[in-house]
Write a structure and sequence with these properties.
- The protein has four helices and six strands.
- By secondary structure, the chain is an alpha+beta fold.
- It has a domain of about 100 residues: Gcn5-related N-acetyltransferase (GNAT) (Aminopeptidase).
- Strands 1, 2, 3, 4, 5 and 6 form a six-stranded mixed β-sheet that branches.
Length: about 150
């Protein structure tokens, strides 16, 4: 039976953080950079364990996005992964259900990096900022580089 735990980065032991990092390296087949790892730290982690093993993880990190000129406290979802051998068991859904509940309680808005990097060209202005038709949404720290998905 899986166990779901929620804790902050500050509450997590170095051993647990190392195990989560190993999960990312395995789940992303080595394509999870140190920069990606840094983005997953500094907020809350939801860890799904079976026995002593971390089999799924999701994080939410506080960010401020600017929507139509107004700063909005945003729960930025990062570091979502499930062990390759444990996929299709609903373990990632358990982690995301807990993240969703946390975001609903603590933040005005939920976002993810993919929402900004996978925007279609009509959503992204020349400065790399997302511009949905309902107003401008961008990380308030400035423009992000546009990448293709």
């Amino acid at each position: 039976m899986p166990t779901v735990r929620r804790l902050t980065t500050a509450e997590a032991s170095n051993d647990l953080l190392a195990e989560i990092r190993r999960l990312f390296d395995e789940a992303f087949e080595g394509d999870f950079s140190n920069e990606d790892w840094k983005h997953a730290l500094g907020g809350w982690h939801v860890v799904v364990e079976v026995g002593d093993a971390v089999v799924s993880h999701a994080a939410v990190v506080p960010r401020t996005l600017e929507v139509a000129g107004r700063p909005v406290r945003t729960g930025y979802v990062e570091g979502v992964a499930t062990a390759a051998k444990r996929r299709r068991e609903g373990l990632g859904s358990l982690a995301m259900a807990e993240i969703t509940e946390l975001v609903r309680r603590e933040f005005e808005l939920r976002a993810s990096r993919r929402a900004f990097t996978a925007c279609s060209s009509d959503w992204v202005g020349n400065d790399g900022r997302a511009r949905p038709s309902s107003g401008t949404a961008r990380p308030s720290s400035g423009p992000r580089k546009r990448t293709t998905a």
